[in-house]
Amino acid sequence: MRVSMIGAGYVGLVSGACFADFGHQVVCIDKDAARVAALNRGEIPIFEPGLDALVEANMRQGRLEFAADTVRVRDADAVFIAVGTPSRRGDGHADLTFVYDAVREIAPLLSAGAVVVTKSTVPVGTGDEIERILRELRRDADIAVVSNPEFLREGAAIQDFKHPDRIVVGTDDIRARNVLAEIYRPLYLNTPPLLYVSRRTAELIKYAANAFLATKITFINEIADLCEQVDADVQEVARGIGLDNRIGSKFLHAGPGFGGSCFPKDTSALLKTAHDYGVPLRIVETVSAVNEQRKRAMARKVVAALDGSVRGKTIAVLGLTFKPNTDDTRDSPAIALIIALHDLGANVRGYDPAGMEQAKPLLPAVQYCTSAYGAAEGADAVVIATEWEQFRALDLARLRGVMRRPVIVDLRNIYRTDEMKRAQFRYVAVGRAGVE
User: How big, in percent rounded to 5, are the helix, strand and coil portions of the chain?
Assistant: First the structure.
């Protein structure tokens, strides 16, 4: 199949590379000429494990190309729209400017029987508006519009794409269904569940899934707060409830709150859609509010660990991205934490294996270091904000030796209390006992 991908950002690049690896002929089109030139040189603009090798292999075999000119959509059997839908300033609704601009630009170039597929996360009814625009601009054509939301986890996107839990295809058009079935046919040996639904249902599935996962995170975080007051262990609570098949163990890890490019933006957009339709989503409203409060409140844990004040003290923050195995700092809890620490008068050093360049514009006052131990040198406390694997096996004796005070605030619960006690650290965790 001939596939065009409009947008060579995270979703477009991963999806395009994986489709090419399936054997399809793929061109990723992006208006950013500098990004396209870099990709054609083999330079990957995002950090995603395995993506550089996947792109290189498929470019070498002639199945994957990058271009800045939308004229390349002329011969496509399917055109995927994978442009950004950021939160609109002022009201929290998804900004669909890039989506509609892309549709208007490609409309005169599409073949009469093309299939346009929305991969961007968009509110309910967006596909209807895309269809209206195409009918207005291409009265001569029978172009089908499909919703095919992505469910990729940053840090595991290639695995998720090639071994999906489900592939949601939102269309009532039989021809479009057949095109999508052919595009995803290489996955059939993995028996992926192709779920055919209406277009509006597909659009809502994406938002509902992310809102539910955000709710699980927020729930266990509030249980963690209760655990701290009643002398219980949130990790054991999470294991105890997660073994129930009706609940499941995923997304039950207490921490500083959720962040990233999806959950904050998508919960906000879902709430805006619900408001527009006069349907209150009280649970989602609470999840969003509690999460924002939690990210800011994490600074209080650091203050308490340092006897009530961080003014003039040096804090080493390990991890700046919202999760490991990505360079994405968007809405990262570490960002809110560091801003709060600065406001309280602390000097902050930071280290992250992949996200420091992305963090620098957001946090210009941070002293960026080249290693965890460099960040900890002379520090009054180390805060573990992201659970990168290299932070799970720190040399505690070495760490203690370079710090001014042996204090660790572990916001991801990656260490055991007994090992911190042996290493003679004051240790503060989330939802479980620490070491004084």
Answer: 45, 15, 40
Confidence of residue 89 (pLDDT cuts 50, 70, 90): confident
Mean of the pLDDT values across residues 384-399? 97
AA letter at 74:
R
Q: Quick one: average pLDDT of 18-23? A: 97
Cα dihedral 299, 303, 304, 309 in deg (nearest 10):
-160
Q: Is 186 within 8 Å of 23 (Cβ atoms)?
A: yes
Question: Which residues are part of the catalytic machinery?
Answer: 262
Q: What pTM was computed for the model?
A: 0.93
| 405-421 burial: b if 16+ Cβ within 10 Å, else e | bbbbbbbbbbbebeebe
Structural contact between residues 379 and 349, judged by C-beta atoms closer than 8 angstroms: yes
Contacts of 13 (CB under 8 A, 6+ apart): 28, 39, 44, 45, 46, 51, 55
Contact 213, 221 (CB under 8 A): no
Measured distance CA(408)–CA(271) in Å, rounded: 37
- The helix or strand, by DSSP H or E, that contains position 38, with its residue range, turns out to be helix 33-40
- Report the alpha-carbon distance of residue 217 to residue 294 in Å, rounded: 11
Of 11, 126, 140, 16, the C-alpha closest to 76 is 16
Q: What value does the mean pLDDT of the chain take?
A: 96
Tens digit of each residue's pLDDT (9 = 90 or more) over 185-207? 998 766 668 999 999 999 999 99
Q: What's at 131, amino acid-wise? A: E
In the chain, the domains with their CATH numbers are: 2-197 (3.40.50.720), 231-436 (3.40.50.720)
